[in-house]
Amino acid sequence: MPEEFQQGVTAKKCENFSEWYNQVIQKAEIVDLRLGIKGFIVIRPWGAKIIEKIYDLYEEELQKRGHQPTIMPSVIPESNLKKESDHIKGFTPEVFWLETPKGSERLALRPTSETLYTPMFALWVRSHRDLPMKLYQRGAVFRLDTKATRPLIRGREFYWIEAHDAFATKEEAEAQVQEDIEMTEKVLHQQLGIPFLPMKRPEWDKFAGAEYTIGSDVLMPDGKLIQQPSTHLMGQKFSRAFNAKFKNKDGKEEFLWTTAYGPAMSRILVSIISTHGDDKGLILPTSVAPIEIVIIPIYTKKNKKEILEYCKKIKKKLEKDHRVHLDEREEHTPGRKFNEWELKGVPLRVEVGQKEMEEQTLTIFIRDMKKREKIQLKDSKKLKLLKREFDERLKKKAEEKLKKSIVECKTKEEIKKAIRNGKICKVNWCSTAKEGVPCAEYIEKNINADVRGTLGNKKETPSSNCVICGKTAKEVVYIGRSY
Amino acid sequence: MPEEFQQGVTAKKCENFSEWYNQVIQKAEIVDLRLGIKGFIVIRPWGAKIIEKIYDLYEEELQKRGHQPTIMPSVIPESNLKKESDHIKGFTPEVFWLETPKGSERLALRPTSETLYTPMFALWVRSHRDLPMKLYQRGAVFRLDTKATRPLIRGREFYWIEAHDAFATKEEAEAQVQEDIEMTEKVLHQQLGIPFLPMKRPEWDKFAGAEYTIGSDVLMPDGKLIQQPSTHLMGQKFSRAFNAKFKNKDGKEEFLWTTAYGPAMSRILVSIISTHGDDKGLILPTSVAPIEIVIIPIYTKKNKKEILEYCKKIKKKLEKDHRVHLDEREEHTPGRKFNEWELKGVPLRVEVGQKEMEEQTLTIFIRDMKKREKIQLKDSKKLKLLKREFDERLKKKAEEKLKKSIVECKTKEEIKKAIRNGKICKVNWCSTAKEGVPCAEYIEKNINADVRGTLGNKKETPSSNCVICGKTAKEVVYIGRSY
Question: Residue A43: which of B70, B107, B109 has the nearest Cβ?
Answer without folding.
Answer: B70
